[in-house]
Amino acid sequence: MSEDKSQGQKSMAVDDMLRDWSVVEPKADFWDENAARVAERLESAQADADQHGALLSAPLPPEEGEPFGKSAAPEEPAPRSLAELARMAVEASAPAPESSEIAKESLSLAALGRASAPVIAEAHAREVAERAELERMRASAPPAVPSELAARAAPPPRRSAAGPLAMAGIGLLGLAAAAVIVVRAQRASAPEPVAAAAPTALPAAPAAATQAQKPDDVVALEDLAPGKGAGASPSPRAPTSGGEKLAAKAEAKPEEPKPGTEKPSEPSAAPPKPEEKKDEEAAKMKPAATAGDVPDKPSTGAVQAAIGSVMGSARACVAGQDEDSRATITFGSDGMVKSVAVSGKAAGTPAEACIKAALGKARVQPFARPTFSVGATIRP
Amino acid sequence: MSQKSDRELVDAAREGDAEAFGILVRRHQKRIYRLAVHLLRDAAEAEDVTQETFVRAYGALSRFDGRSEPFTWMYRIAVNLSLNAIRSRKTGRKATTPDDPRIEGMLADRKSVEADPARLAADREAALVLATGIDKLSDTLRTTLILVSIDGLSHLEAAEILGCPEGTVAWRVHEARRKLRAHLTSEGYSDESDES
């Protein structure tokens, strides 16, 4: 865990320590007791339903400086059309009917102008609004009233006549805001912001973050064919392997969004076929390998992401077992898994082959060393 | 019955099959407990949260929409319950104490193979430093780090639990590790994982 170096500085393998960090389990019969207590509470109808769904909502607020700062914010409703935004802006202040008509006209003209020239539309909208303002002033000042009184009465209408202008401005602002939201959403779905936001303190980390952004782990999950890895063992999660999971998600997507829940894989709503992804992946890796700037070894983040992406299927292999198993994964310099050694409870059982098949699908970027080994704990 | 997938068990439980839900409890309670211990740093509270997670999950079965895996759904409930428990504590528990259950957990495996008391003491100190570094992180970074680096979940699974994009999970893990590394450095440690 730690060792003294010549300079007196101690070191620790943080990754290994975190990965192997077990907890002292409660007394042996705790699990049976806990299951029994849960059953008792369910039977005695103490299962008070979470009426407000608070426990099902996203648990955490976004971290300061987070590039995708919408994590725990309530899920935005379906994007509104520009016409809806304009209508909302008009209705929000509940102006006089005529001014709302004017504002609507202005907005429709502005919309027309977007197709040709926004400046023209804006000028036109202003002209319409001014004309309406004049008409309103004329209407609000009866001819019988003396000119002085009419002059006194004039300011209030002027104030209310500014409404259409303001409405038109709000409408235009709404349009601009909608455009900004669309552009930001597109940027957020692209992998660059993470890499760009990642500090340079850890040279390998941006690559890891970028890799995590790329659909590499999704590819690995998709690759989990039911008959290959999880299917070889009596896995409880085998039927829900990658393809089915994605299919289920694709089916579920048109449903109404759950408040506070975002769909992480939303940007890749129509993922390419696994073969295409593999080709893309290979194409991405090739230039790195030929460019001569391959790292000495894969970065911590890249290894973590690669193993994390296949750990679910490895876990499915040992589902139902009581003890953890260990696996040592050896990557070749091409980034592919060369060998997997399994020890612990799963060794020598059918689960071993299942684990090897599952972990064998991990991929990292090519690196300079001939091999690179990493240990992993597979917890049931 | 025990070989059924989580989804099949959830479907059965929805139809009133208590035994099916019992299998789900037995299948996932250890993982939920381990997660709760790391989040709460208190074994007794973790036991309560583990039990409460399943009771609440049962109460919300009708709202499980099947878009995520049942275990990630239960994890989300466990995370929410743990964070609620932390918030409802009368006193903040920022300091990491030597009797922290996580420290014992980290040293449990080593005690059986390590006979040298000096070495064990050094290991304990290192574990304490690491735990303190993790506890200094914000709830957001700490929870994400626990899910990915300690519990070994993929970014996709963590994203489903936390309700955020995968890219956000990657960023948070990176940020948490950066802060953790800075803490280790300030305590006179270096991270072997980063040495090439």
Give a structural overview.
- The complex is a heterodimer of chains A (380) and B (196).
- With 380 residues, chain A is mainly α.
- Chain A contains 14 helices and five strands.
- In chain A, helix 3 (82-92) packs antiparallel against helix 4.
- The relative contact order of chain A is 0.09.
- Chain B is mostly helical.
- Helices cover 71% and strands 2% of the residues of chain B.
- Chain B is globular.
- Classes of the chains: A mainly alpha (380), B mainly alpha (196).
Radius of gyration of chain A from CA coordinates: 31 Å
Extract low-pLDDT stretches of chain B: none
Instruction: Give the uncertain stretches of chain A in residue-range form.
Output: 2-6, 69-78, 115-121, 141-161, 189-275, 282-291
Morphology call of chain B: globular
Overall pLDDT metric of chain A? 61
Tell me the distance between the termini of chain A.
25 Å
The number of strands of chain B is 1
- Elements of chain A, N to C (H/E): EEHHHHHHHHHHHHHEEHE
Number of helices of chain B: 9
Share of helix among residues of chain A? 40-55%
Order of helices and strands of chain B: HHHHHHHHHE
Estimate the strand proportion of chain A: 5-15%
Distance between the termini of chain B: 49 Å
What profile does the largest beta sheet of chain A have?
3 strands, antiparallel
Query: Which structural class best describes the helix and strand composition of chain A?
Result: mainly alpha
* Class inferred from helices and paired strands of chain B: mainly alpha
The largest chain-to-chain contact, stated as pair and per-chain residue counts, equals:
A-B, 112 and 105 residues
